[in-house]
Structures are given as structure tokens and as C-alpha cells.
Amino acid sequence: MKPQSQLGDAPLPVHVAIIMDGNGRWASARGLPRTEGHRRGAESVRTVIKAASRLGVRYLTLFGFSSENWKRPSGEVMDLMGLLRLYLRKELAELHKQGVRFRVIGDRSRLSVDIQDLIIVAEQRTRANVGLNLVLALSYGGRAEIVNSARNMAERVKSGELDPENIDEDLFAKSLETADIPDPDLLIRTSGEQRLSNFLLWQTAYTELVFTDTLWPDFRTEEFELALSQYQSRDRRYGSVGV
Predict the structure, then answer these.
(1) How confident is the model at residue 237 (pLDDT cuts 50, 70, 90)?
(2) 9 part of the active site
(3) 197 appears as a binding residue in the annotation
(4) Of 13, 84, 110, 238, which sits with the fewest C-beta atoms within 10 Å of its C-beta?
(5) In Å, what is the CA distance from 239 to each residue of 188, 206, 233?
(6) Residue 22 annotated in ligand binding
(7) Catalytic-role residue among 9, 21, 163, 213
(8) Of 9, 69, 166, 198, which is the active-site residue?
(9) Does a structural domain hold residue 110?
(10) Nearest-5° angle of CA 70, CA 73, CA 78?
(11) Span 17-42, average pLDDT
(12) pLDDT at 3
């Protein structure tokens, strides 16, 4: 029997961001290698993409691999990169069929050349799609993104292209990797942790946060809809007084 939807009539978020946490703990609790947790987590990715598309969420940003994750044991990093290759090769056709537009943010230079090529192919093939915008954050760090933006603007000022008096929040936001992507309305973090972990630091200034104890490999449509229903119950005032 299909579980009843937990969603109300209030507007859904336009942009949902997710910190997919708990793969390793899921595997350890079952006496399995961490790689199995990551493999099971890929199933949750598929499920959430389909649910977001069905519900009309326009943007879904997934924190796939952080700039700090490079510090993990080399064997685990290699396994993660292998899973990434497999995902990009196997899922592209299905994403394209669903009308999903795929793109990546983060420091691609640290990724192997073949993975960079797979990303380019995926982005180019899905560029004209008008369904869900799927953004995968790879080798990504929020602080690094802000620093890079500040450096670029400093170079523009130095060259005389930009007057420092014209720098404001809107101009700064347009220099970020997410320039053409609306800020997240909702950020979900799984596994019980309650921190941003250097993810979309500028963009989440007014984002609603939902933390769930569910480990990412167990995160399915029901958990996703529950997080969306929590968002629907929030009063978003953006610093002003509510009605």
C-alpha cells in the first residue's frame, strides 16, 4: 500500500539543497565496507531526483564531495571517484529521459581528466532540458567559492573594469558559481548532524534548515516529503515582521 503524502497545500520550495550524510555509519552498523554505504546512497539519489521532479521542485543541489573529503583515506577517495564515474556513465541517459538538466559546481581541476570529460558531456547533453535542474557539488567548498569570487572582483577592480563603489550583494552573488541559480529555500541534512559543513555558505543566508536522524542510504520519498512538509509549516520573514 502506497503511503499517504504528508504534503499540504502551502507552496513547495523552488530550490532544495541536501547534505547527504551517513553512508559510512550505515555501512558500519551492518558490518559492511564504507563503499557499500556509498552504493546504497546512490539509490537514495535516484529516488530523490524522481520525487523532486514529480513534485515540481525546480532546483535540487546535492553535496556529493566536499573539498575537505580529499583528506579521507586514499582508498576511500578512489572508491568514491569510481562510483562517480559509474554514476555519470550509467545515469546520464535516464536523467536526459526525465528532462533533467545536469550541472556541477566546485573545483573540477582536482578531479581526474576522464571525470571532467564525463561532466562536460553530461552538461552539454542535458543543457536544453527544461525539467528539474540537478546541481552536483563536487570538490566544493563554500569558503573557497567566496574567496575565488572576491579574488576575481579584485582583479576586475585592478584592471579598471570595475569601480569598487559599484560592488554590492547582488553583484557579488552574480560572481559565484551559482549565479544563475536561486538561493536554496530549504536545506536538508541527514544522519543527525546539525551543521552546514562549508556548503553554500553565501547562498543559505535565509534558507530554512531541516535536520533528520535518517541516514542517507535510508532516505526515501517519505522522508523527503516529510522535510518538505516541515518547510511548508515555516513562516519565512527574511528578517521582517510576520503577518
Answers:
(1) confident
(2) no
(3) yes
(4) 238
(5) 21, 9, 17
(6) yes
(7) 21
(8) 69
(9) yes
(10) 70
(11) 95
(12) 53
